[in-house]
Amino acid sequence: MSEDVLTIFERSRAGRRAFVPPPTDVPEVPVEELLPASAIRRRPAELPEVSEPEIVRHYTTLSAKNFHLDEGFYPLGSCTMKHNPKLHERVAALPGHARLHPLQDPEHAQGALELMWRLQDALGEIAGLPHVSLQPSAGSQGELTGLLLTRAYHEDRGEERRKVLTPDTAHGTNPATVTMAGYEVVKVGTSADGGVDLDDLREKATDDVACLMLTNPNTLGLFDRNIEEITRTVSDAGATLYYDGANLNAVMGVVRPGDTGFDIVHFNLHKTFTQPHGGGGPGAGPIACSARIAPFLPVPQVVRRRGENGSEPYFDLDFDRPKSIGRLRGFQGNFGVFVRSYAYIRSLGADGLKDVSQVAVLNANYLKARLAELSEYLPVAFDRTCMHEFVLSGRGAREKLGVRTLDIAKRMLDHTVHPPTVYFPLLVDEALMIEPTETETKERLDHFAAVVKEIVEEAKEDPEVLKSAPHTTPVRRLDEAGAAKRPVVRWRPDAENPGDPGRAERDAASGTGAM
Amino acid sequence: MSRYTGVTDQDLREMLDAIGVGSLDDLFADVPEGVRLDHPIDLPDGQSEQEVHDHLASLAARNLHCDEEVSFLGAGMYDHYVPALIDTLLQRSEFLTPYTPYQPEISQGGLQVMFEFQTAISELTGLPVSNASVYEGPSALAAAGYLAKLETGRSRLVVSRGVHPHSRAALRTHAAGYGMEVVETPLNPEGATDSEALEEAVDEDTAAVFVQQPNFLGTVEELGEVVEAGKTTGAMLVCAADPLPLGVLRPPGEFGVDVCVGEGQTLGNRLDYGGPSFGFFAADQRFIRKLPGRIAGETRDVDGRRGFVLTLQTREQHIRREKATHNICTAQALNALAGVVYLSWLGKRGLVELAELMLRRTHYAREALGLKPINPGPVVREFAVRAPDLDALFERARAEGINPGFRLAREYPEYQEGLLVAITERRTREQIDRLAAVVASVRREPAAAGAAPEGGRE
Question: Model's pTM, two decimal places?
Fold first, then answer.
């Protein structure tokens, strides 16, 4: 096996180490005297034994196999891969933030609580919904919080409602959340112009509907022109309105969910507010809500209290909220993420945030216009002015060139651009969902358009180049079906791994897998 | 133009021309007049980088952090030393700035890290499969509750009061959604899970039983006995565990638990006032197709080269939608990277040495403080005592730059005078002795402590 694909476990050699423990300054009582025999570990965990330089080299080598945002264009639709300002890493690492214990007395955590309070205030203003909880860990936990708030709200009124409406364009997290919150999913269709099908909505907005979850602009990148009619219809049915903030990057300073009639919003701080994605987290999913929902918000809430006898106001954690749904997680949420997002909001201010949305929309429409010359092969799914993203269909390319969206995406990997989100939303055949974000320059957009054009030209000449792509990446197409059929999800000292070229033959001979 | 966008006036003209509209406003024509904002949102003006830095630094300066006092505060997050190589590796753009590895050919670094992480968690917990991280400890426990519902179809969850109060609270909140009742069982007079009470609480409708090792008070639970009591009616057994003490403690998997979850902050993650850290979720083989979250698997590419992919995705929300095993999408990949780098840094022997040091210091500290223990049996990393004059103790300790620990009264009214004291490799004997001296001085002259500050915080 080539050296650069070894796991850290395979680099282990008995006796090597990086860690040197601090001296044992207390009596060295035998472990057997402190713990009952039944509680003592008999065999040490098989962690690797590796020196510090080898650890650093191993992970540095691994890191070089990742494509990343600081390297190049990353138009992954719905994920808002915008630049992550470097200042944020510096301020998040200040010891007053990074080394602060979550259970420190509020009196000794005034800076952290003030930061959270100010972030709540700013997010509330951006959403037009003044009551905010920063606690949810990511968008999906924010969604769950929103539906638990909905449930608490209806129960408090003595109502039991069973259904939640989600458009068929919704992110998968919406229906998954509905089930986790104990509700039944009712899908609402999409009209010919890419918005919510109003007739379908009117029919389904019955009195046992608890909530509508809506993403606006939706996953087609389209702002729903009938938004007022939609919110009225749902509101008249007595349901709450949930705004999935995944696409908030399109509308900051332009339109606010609260002003449009929504009750609850979640923010993806790792999308709109620049927390680096980290290869799949961390994120944070704060929620904002209206006054009628506020009594049910999670505990603790960060509050500003009036000082006694004319002294300064101070910040505190409020646990005394009898109608609260409780906690979603431990402590106060992903504070390190709050620091970054708060720094971002302070850097940009109201004008800067509006500029973000305007340029995000400008960039998406410009790129859409640049790609229009390829519409024979990659037509826009719903050809209107888009917001921060747009969706192409690879139908033409499949029919006329014999290549699929997957092949086009894989060929992009050879061009040092990240492919768009593919095969989503589900209602678009061979979808490519493109979100350039505001932090890309015109030259970057032009380059991407040129890459797509080159790939289409290549497909006309020789579709095999696409079908066998990528050609220049650390590995080429991987056997995903095989991985799922016979899952190998950990390294084992005593088992052969699939990377071992001899394994396939032995498996075939013995009819067994690795696990 | 803001500092992170780069549209010049000329760019703007050219771009609008290419689009075929006259102005930026035209791009927002779909937003109905009636809902469009007619005024700027009310936020402070944007600031230069140095102004923002200084503002954030001034806020940070108003927090008393763990370098500024000797902190015996734990209760779920702990002041461990984070080695420098973690800072260096986590700040690499290649790890910091990519998205979830949906395109495996250009994400082998992140995917292999997940695979290595899963292996390390599997080894620690003694369970064969682990996912690539969930948010954090308490919601990981709640996710196990959801798995138990999907698996058993039963409607009750039984949880020991030895489980972290935030975990129990998160479990109740989530269970209210998926429609399950949560029942708590008490600790015995030694601060350990009362196995008899647990056995009485489980019935044919109990989907899962939850315990924690070591428990919230630092007690080393008799897991064999507890598992036996919890499993009498076929319920799943879920154990929350602190990964570092597992260097000396027999892993939950060896006691026959079905799921082991936990908080990963202690593995190379900063305190960060409570997050981001990561949660882990390991389970018996039979749950491999029902776990929440991402899982990396090993495979080969078309040339036969070793490679890694996200696998078993038919469990997940983006494929399975309302039938997904959980709604989680973005998790804690970067924090999990810190976890596996930390475990590699500690290594096979280092984990044992660190755990043994904590074990010995915990026992030493309990003895040195000389207060009546709430949990007099085996403890590791933490222990609880009754301190008759807690307000005075806090006041005098803080005057000496010591934070004596966590007051139990809010979460455990049954321990009104309870103090939970946490020990890590950073808390030296000398520091423990200083805390003991403060305790002794309060006992000698409680009256000298003066007016009591506000009490009973979380």
Answer: 0.96
